[in-house]
Amino acid sequence: MTETVSGSGARKGKSAQRTKGLRIQRVFTTPGVHPYEEVTWERRDVVMTNWRDGTVNFEQRGVEFPADWSMNATQIVASKYFRGALGTPQREWSLKQLVDRVAGKYTETGREQGYFASDEDAEVFDHELKYALVHQLFSFNSPVWFNVGTESSQQVSACFILSVDDTMESILDWYKEEGIIFKGGSGAGVNLSRIRSSAELLSSGGTASGPVSFMRGADASAGTIKSGGATRRAAKMVVLDVDHPDIEEFIETKAREEHKIRALRDAGFDVDLGGADMFSVQYQNANNSVRVSDSFMRAVESGSEFGLTSRTTGEVVATVDARKLFHSMARAAWESADPGIQYDSTINDWHTTPESGRISASNPCSEYVHLDNSSCNLASINLLRFLTEDDTFDVERFVKLTELVITAMDISISFADFPTEKIGETTRAFRQLGIGYANLGALLMATGHAYDSDGGRAVAASITSLMTAVSYRRSAELAGAVGPYDGYAKNAESHKRVMRKHSAANDDLRIVGSLEKPIYAASTKEWQECLRIGEKNGWRNAQASLLAPTGTIGFMMDCDTTGVEPDFSLVKFKKLVGGGSMQIVNQGIPRALANLGYQQEQIEAIVEYISEHGHVVDAPGLRPEHYPVFDCAMGRRYIAPMGHVKMMAAVQPFLSGAISKTVNVPEEASVEDFEEIYFEGWRLGLKALAVYRDNCKVGQPLSVSTSESQEQPSEPKVVEVNRPVRRRLPKKRPSQTVSFTVGGAEGYITAGSYPDDGLGEVFMKLGKQGSTLAGVMDAFSIAISIALQYGVPLETYVEKFTNMRFDPAGMTDDPDIRMAQSVVDYIFRRIALDHLPYEKRAALGVLSAEERAAQAAGEDPAQVAAQVESYAQSAPVTDGAESTESTGSEVSTAHTDTPEPASTQRASEAAATEKLKEGFLADAPLCVTCGTKMRPSGSCYVCEGCGSTSGCS
After folding, report:
1. pLDDT by residue (tens digit) across 90-105?
2. How far apart are CA 504 and CA 653, in angstroms?
3. Catalytic positions, please?
4. Where in the numbering of this chain does the Ribonucleotide reductase large subunit C-terminal domain appear (predicted)?
């Protein structure tokens, strides 16, 4: 246990007093040995290119990192966190410099503010902190790495909550404050429920605009700042209470815009991400959430009426059918992924400082929930680093690291700068912290626990309970050393009540297996100590823990999984130090198989099968009862939506804040499924929840064509159906052959055309002659060729097959298509470039390198396309190879073997599986830094190529 002794340090500010410094115990380091001396360091070159045009995004050679850090982590840290202009002596080039800059500031401030009993304790703190960071035991959130120890503003928080009152001055302040926060690359949330509804009168006698109208201005502001050169979009959250008279309009805002986007797309407008015509679409820069109370949810449960209240008088001005309103929320989210839901009564029941104000909003990803005009700095622990060689959890080291991190995080508030004075005052008065973790999914799989199982949830709950118990126990010790937070005296009874609620939830935790047993024993002891010390000292922090998405910092720590998420897939790409990448099976899988009792020969066979197929179904020797251990967020076997909800419910009672997580559901999910998930989230005690249905946003074809008549015939009519007629190719026709390489796999495309123009056949060659893969590609070629001859438009295939994901995938040797998500993705992009006119290609988002360059330079890419087409028409046309007809099908006569790819070839998944994979990523944006497709991370997206995120740190 950490001791406190009297010291001479004093806190700066109005409450300066004599303090007791902390005795810091050395756990990870060795006396007399600097932590850097125990690390093997090596020099590396970091060169990051844009897959779209091959240009170099970032280059810094000779950077210094630990030898056991991955190249991916090296690239992300060097490109994002090193400070100083490239090519100058001021530029950081070693991880040692980065860690020294950050840890040095924490140690210096802690010494000045009286956190340490002696200089020796300060040195131990410094060494322990540097060891933990260099060994990837935890990481601070991104703003710390950006700002701490530099000459810029010392902003350490990534999460902000603002407030808006029912005055024009307050609304305009909201616009300004959001803009300042967005400019710094952070996000903010706000509740607009104080603004009077559009049905209420102004003091002048006119009718109010209502909160939804003011959302338009804020959305436009966020969109402008987003396009102003930031590396990630302006992230924001807008919340409205369920009893606001404008709640129905709020619920429908994004669903209506989604209808508009589809209409614009079908009319030929450019409404792709970043498209020229997207400026007319509103409300796209925020996550929307409805705040629901227990009274509303009980009205939904009973099917009764619910009252909407005036913002000016507090009187009920209208009543609605609660179930109908709840259904409209679910339907809007089903259509457009918004709104999410926040459970107001639950949030405020766990509120430590209610005497200082209600919790009315959250940050953009919904994990930080506390007072208005406040902020929270985050840090996440890498759980897999505490799994020992004998597959037990190192409770002692985990406890000590949590103590260290909480101490450092609290120190940062003493030197931190804030975007507004109001936020600074609130944060310094309540000292909100957000410790969390990453790699939970990887830890569960490695220890043989299915994510969606009682055992998996028991492990997660035990770890979360221990983390929060230690955090608050340390906070109570800090209160004894440097004083409780300024707002504690006013909220002492409420804070103690919430601590008892956490402790009671721990008492109710059900142990299932041996792994969590010692963790639970430690958490029970820690809660007892927390209550005992807190009763005497109070607490230093109003809030301690939450679960953030850990996007970029998860890559910095070489985590396989982020936040509370399960594993994303069983295989991933690993970047190599010398350049390039290779596909590997997740490292936790062999360990999981060993823990499940498999022998080494069986493990090797199963791993080889996973490498080839990407899943475990029918893996040799793997028992079906063990399949759930390897279930992932996507793929052949994916975790059911309610499995995600149950995991959130297992850990929520042990968190001060909430959880950043989106529950993904398949495209076939119904509105009723959304209602069930939202209702179960309330019943299970969650604080916030968002649900995303695959392909619900732009890109999903309408179920009914806009050209179809909307009128129903008054009487039955006989309709003559025009049957398609096959237009066969002549015996001799022009064709061209293109060779390609995708992710190391080599192949050929031969495309034959009608003499009067128009593609009529396609032959795709991949894999050795006689192999299963070659046979599948031949059959696929015949099917496409026949369909083209029956009149199926080529653009239909391009739309369907581009962006399809499966291996082999990756870099290509085609300057027009630098990166392909699969061989099929590449083939149909290449065919589109060769056989579709510019207008159709542009509508599908397929442009050549020259056209993209012209577009980036502000020129008209259509002119480039016209020049290329003019040249192609003037060039001589040569006849290609002939084909013969056999049983009515077009079959290629040329059979040229292609070399076997260096990496293992494998056929694509079944159609339903690929559709599911595509759904998880179809709406993910392209990374604005490197251009690769991002993947979901909590409520945001993260780029595995360069670590950029779409709004979360």
Report:
1. 999 999 999 999 999 9
2. 9
3. 363, 365, 367
4. 157-692
